[in-house]
Amino acid sequence: MIAMFHIRGIEKGVIMTKRITVRLQAIYWVIGAFLLASTPMWAEEPGTGRAFLTQMPYESPPPPESGGVKATPSPEILTTQDHERLEALIPLLEGKQEFWAMGEFVFFGKHSIPYLLKALKVPAARVRFNAVETLSILNDPSAIPGLLEVAMNPDEETRIRSHALRVATRLDPNQVIPAIEVMVKDPNSTIRNTAVFESRRVPRKEVLPVIISAISDPEQYVSITARDSFWILTRFSGSIHDWEVSTPEDRKEWVKEWWAWWEENKDKLSGTPPSAEPPRSPEDQNVS
Fold first, then answer.
1. Which of 117, 120, 127, 116 lies closest to 93 in space, CA to CA?
2. pLDDT at 275
3. In the 3-class helix/strand/coil scheme, how is the chain assigned residue by residue?
4. Is the pLDDT reported for residue 82 higher than 80?
5. CA 180, 186, 187: angle at the middle one, nearest 5?
6. Largest Cα–Cα distance in the chain?
């Protein structure tokens, strides 16, 4: 029994010794890490001071020796090879090389427009969309008739029709009123909404009755877009109405205010300039 107690005492002593040793090692590691962190990582030579980081003075790079390479100008007259090249670029408006093909059309400038108008009639929808986008980059008003033909085509895809009207409006807003008149009556509500949205960029009083007719549109979002476009052009917002919960019957009743304003002011308008002190927008009046 005495021997057993003696052995257990020895085991406890060994365990305590190990715990103390581990603790001392941990303390030594902490002290060592602290000393390393506070010691410089470089050795100073005798007789020299400590090294400090400093901001060197900025020196601008030397100017270029030349003004760079100028872009090759578009050809004034196309050769037979150029015509064949433009014709071959049309199908490339779809696929991995479509951006390169668009750049080639842009390089040829105004000479590309007949080929891009031809591209508006190919079966591939991606080709037609990229043709519209390329005409936007060329920024030539001579493309407007072809764009409006696409915009008014009921068999064309909605996104292409909408994009064609947007591009035509930015090229010359004065030429798009006939197209807007047709498109606000389109069975597709997205097309009607695009038409009344783009009408806000047309500074002509002839477009105002077209916008008013859309305020009573069966689709609520088309009606609200028309109301906002009319406000942007005239700063007339009508009475406060709850447009978010309005019904088609409500809008047919409310639109009478806009027709009354038109009858009162149509002879006074030479264009559609905004008033000198525009009132708060319809959004600020909580009518939408």
1. 127
2. 41
3. CHHHHHHHHHHHHHHHHHHHHHHHHHHHHHHHHHHHHHCCCCCCCCCCCCCCCCCCCCCCCCCCCCCCCCCCCCCCCCCHHHHHHHHHHHHHHCCCCHHHHHHHHHHHHHHHHHHHHHHCCCCCHHHHHHHHHHHHHHCCHHHHHHHHHHHCCCCCCHHHHHHHHHHHHHHCHHHCHHHHHHHCCCCCHHHHHHHHHHHHHCCCHHHHHHHHHHHCCCCHHHHHHHHHHHHHHHCCCCCCCCHHHCCHHHHHHHHHHHHHHHHHHCCCCCCCCCCCCCCCCHHHHCCC
4. yes
5. 160
6. 124
Domains and CATH numbers, the chain: 176-288 (1.25.40)
Q: Are 113 and 144 in contact (CB under 8 A)?
A: no
State the amino acid at position 201 in one-letter form: R
| 47-82 exposure pattern, b = at least 16 Cβ within 10 A, e = fewer | eeeeeeeeeeeeeeeeeeeeeeeeeeeeeeeeeeee
pTM equals 0.70
**281: which residues sit within 8 A by CB, 6+ positions away?**
228, 231, 237
How far is residue 160's CA from residue 131's CA, in Å, rounded to a whole number? 10
- Tens digit of each residue's pLDDT (9 = 90 or more) over 210-220: 999 999 999 99
2, 5, 20, 27 from 13: Cα distances, Å: 17, 12, 11, 21
Cα–Cα distance, 288 to 286 (Å, whole number): 6
Tens of pLDDT, residue by residue over 28-66, are 676 766 666 555 555 555 555 677 777 778 888 888 776
In this prediction, residues 137-165 reach a mean pLDDT of: 95
Using alpha carbons only, what angle is made at residue 246 by residues 243 and 251, rounded to the nearest 5 degrees? 85
**Tokens at residue 271, please?**
């264009």
Q: Taking all residues of the chain, what is their mean pLDDT, rounded to a whole number? A: 83
